[in-house]
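Readers outside the structure-tokenisation community will struggle with the description of the input data as it stands. For illustration, here is how one protein appears when written out as sequence plus structure tokens:
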Amino acid sequence: MKFYRKQPIEAEQFDGSQKLVFGYNVIPSGLIDAITGKPVYYSMLVDDVCQDSYDDTGVVLDVGDWIVKEADEIEVIADDVFKQTYAEMPVIPKAVADYMNDYNNLINLSFHSALYEAFDDLFAASQDVEHWIEHNSDVFARAWLDGYVVEKEK
């Protein structure tokens, strides 16, 4: 038997905010929680096949559930199930991303070579990149293997 990993997906945790209610056409229930003053539950139509399909199915979602967009489908996943299934993409500095792109795309190095080259005197990466890789080697490995998101500049 072969095992496969899922490709990166877009996911957003539902927080009950107006932005997400309107953004995903979420319908608050008519029942209001006496303590919080918020709807008891929310519902939304999800498309089983694609945007043009007439086979829409309604789902109930709670604050904390995840709205997952994968291919042409939208799925609602409970928080505990989501956390067991998915891991957040590593976030790396732009300089490290540039280093990875340069050595992976231009020279087509293996992970071992990219790690070795970062600390080699002849082809050394900048001190900032070298320092980051040295102190974040697990994140560097995950980013190399699974992809990454570039850190937003401050």
The CA atoms of residues 68 and 131 lie 35 Å apart.
